[in-house]
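Reviewers of the previous submission asked for a worked example of the structure-prediction workflow described in the proposal, so we include one complete record here. The input consisted solely of the amino acid sequence. No template or homolog information was supplied to the procedure at any stage.
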Amino acid sequence: MTKGGMESVEVFTSEGKGRGLKAQKEFLPGDVIFAEPAYAAVVFDSLTHVICHTCFKRQERLHRCGQCKFAYYCDRTCQRAAWLNHKNECSAIKKHGKAPTENIRLAARIMWKIEREGSGLAEGCLVSIDDLQNHVDSFDEEEKKELHADVESFLEFWPPQSQQFGMQYISHIFGVISCNGFTLSDQRGLQAVGVGIFPNLCQANHDCWPNCTVIFNNGKIELRALSKISPGDELTVSYVDFLNVSEERRKQLKKQYYFDCSCEHCKKQIKDDLMLAVKEGEGKPSAETVKEVIQFSKDTLEKINKARMEGLYHEVVKLCRDCLKKQEPVLGDTNIYLLRILSIASEVLSYLQMFEEAADYAKRMVDGYLKIYHPNNAQLGMAVMRAGVTHWHAGLIEAGHGLICKAYAILLITHGPSHPITKDLEVMRVQTEMELRMFQQNEFMYYKMREAALKNQKIQVMPEPSNETSPSLFHKKE
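From that input alone, the workflow returned the following C-alpha cells.
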C-alpha cells in the first residue's frame, strides 16, 4: 500500500514483527526515502518559553501568544502557521487557567485534528491513528497508574463543547503517544525539545544495525538511507543507542517498546566482545579484578551525573581522572565503560577550556567508537565532529582537520547537506583546510598568528555540558 508522497515505500507484514516498511525502489547511502510532517507535535514543558511552538527552533527572542500567554513563536509567520493547531488549545488553556503537561497537550492536539478531519487516513499517511499500536495491554501496574492519571487530567482539560471521546479511545491515544512519540530536536540537532506523532515513521521496525536513520530537519522528519537498499528490502531504524551490549539493548527494548529484539546483532551478540574488552597479554587481569573495575565505573558514573547536575565540573574531571587510572590497566580500548568516561571527560574539559587533555581523551573515544558503531551512524558523526573541534581549539590543526573531514562525510549521509549542523561543519572544514595549508607552509608563523588571533579575540566558551546524550529516536515519558 502506498499513498501520496510515499510512493517509494510500502507497508507490509514483516515476519514476527507485524507491520513494517519496505522499499519500492533502490536507495543509496544519504538518499531521503521520505520526509514527513508531524501529525501533531508539542514542545517539552521545560522549554515552552525558549522554543518556537511551530518550527521547534531555539531563538533568543520569541513572540508570546497574546491570548493564552503560553505559546511562543519566532515571528508572525510561525504564529499564523500555528493557528489551525493552536486555536482550540489556546481557548482551552485560557478556560483551564494553565497549560497541562506535554502528554495532555499532545493528546488534545491529536483529538482536535481527529475532530476536524476524522480518524481515517490523513493526507500522505500510510496508516490511520486508529491503526497505530498502543501496547496498553502490555503496561505494568505503574504504567497503568500513569495512564489513568493522564486520562483524568485530559478529561479535566478537554472542553465540553468539543467532540467527546470514550475512555477506551482516549487510552488508545495515550498508548500511541507512549509507544510512538518521536523526539524532536532543535535546529542543530543537539537538544531534544519536543515530541510528535509521525504515523509513517511509526511503521519502521527496529534493528540494532539498521539500514536507515531518522533526522528532524526543517520542520519534518527525514528517513535517510545509511547503506545501499534494494527494492523489496525492509526499512529499519534503531530505537536505542547501539553502544550497549546485546543483553542490555534487548532489556531496554522489551521494557520501553514491548518486544524481544531478534536482529542478527542481538542473536549473535556481534560486537559484545569489543564492548566488554579487557587488556590482553601477560598482564591480563583476573575476572574478579574486571568485575571490581566495572562496578567502580558504574559507581563513578552515578557520582558524575550528580556532580554534573550541580554544575560541579571540576569535580567531574577529578572523578573521570581517578576512574581512568583504575580502568586503563584493566579494560580494553573499546570497553564501553572506558568509552563513557572518556566521552564525559573530553566534553567537560573542553567546556573548561582545557583543550589539550580533552583532545587526547576525545581521540581515544573516537578510535573506540569507530570499531563499534556502523560507519554511517549519526551519533558517531557527532562524536567525531566534537573531537575535531576540540583538536582545533587545542591547536592540533592536522588531527582537527582530519576529524572534521571524517565527521562531514558521515553527516552528509546521516543529516544531509541542507541540515544546519552539516552547514556549520562545512564552514569549519573550509576554515581548518585554510589553516592547515598555512601550517604546512610555515609552522612557526601559523602558531604566531594563532596566538595573536586568540589574544585579540574573546575566547569562545564551549556549550555547557549536559547530562542528556544525543536525542534518542523515540520519546519515552520518564
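The mean pLDDT is 90. We consider this example representative of the routine output the project will generate in years two and three.
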